[in-house]
Design brief:
About 25% of the residues lie in helices and about 25% in strands. It is of the alpha+beta class and about 200 residues long. A hairpin with a 2-residue loop joins strand 3 and strand 4.
């Protein structure tokens, strides 16, 4: 990933905790401390908050999260951060740092995103995947403890990579109908080569 600038993810010891640090602390409390902090190096990244990063977090032994930090800012009325889950052996093959940066840019300069919205990645989330879109869902894998940071109020939602057919189905029938299809198919959300449930 030549266009990514990597920083060591570390908490600063300060008397006042910044908004970015509160977001990182929330991820650390629910998963682990971020192991990497990435900033995409091309495109209109100057239009994103200065503290925006894509964090790489070892969620569990078999799952890694790519999560936004400061896609929202403290002054936002509705603060939102999103994450995508993948397998540890897929971390270096994924397009998620670029995709999450583009999604954050769209959220800040285009239309505000939220639960049930979908986005077009413009590329597969991983080489060879039919999932070129994402649908923003509740963080079912982690539950309400991850979903909400109390102070300041920030919502953390899960973006599930999806196929164009799944997104078309969601637009026609709604998020709940698509999630029912996911559940009925027992789809593997970590598998970039999974078949479409529609």
């Amino acid at each position: 990933m030549p266009a990514v600038v990597t920083e060591k993810a570390a908490f600063r010891t300060m008397s006042s905790i910044t908004y970015a640090q509160k977001i990182e602390a929330h991820y650390a409390e629910n998963w682990r401390a971020p192991r990497e902090s990435l900033r995409w190096g091309t495109g209109p990244i100057d239009e994103l908050p200065a503290d925006f990063r894509v964090l790489v977090v070892s969620r569990s032994a078999d799952t890694v999260a790519f999560a936004t930090r400061c896609m929202s800012v403290a002054a936002d009325a509705d603060r939102l951060e999103i994450h995508v889950l993948c397998r540890p052996n897929d971390v270096r093959r994924t397009n998620l740092p670029e995709i999450l940066t583009a999604v954050a840019h769209y959220h800040r300069t285009g239309s505000r995103l939220g639960l049930g919205h979908s986005v077009n990645f413009g590329m597969p989330w991983m080489v060879g995947s039919a999932c070129t879109h994402g649908v923003i869902s509740l963080p079912y894998v982690d539950g309400p403890k991850l979903e909400w940071l109390a102070e300041p109020p920030v919502r953390f939602l899960w973006m599930i990579p999806a196929t164009p057919a799944e997104i078309a189905f969601k637009r026609e029938r709604g998020l709940e109908a698509l999630e029912e299809r996911f559940e009925a198919a027992q789809f593997n959300y970590l598998d970039p080569l999974r078949p479409s449930v529609v």
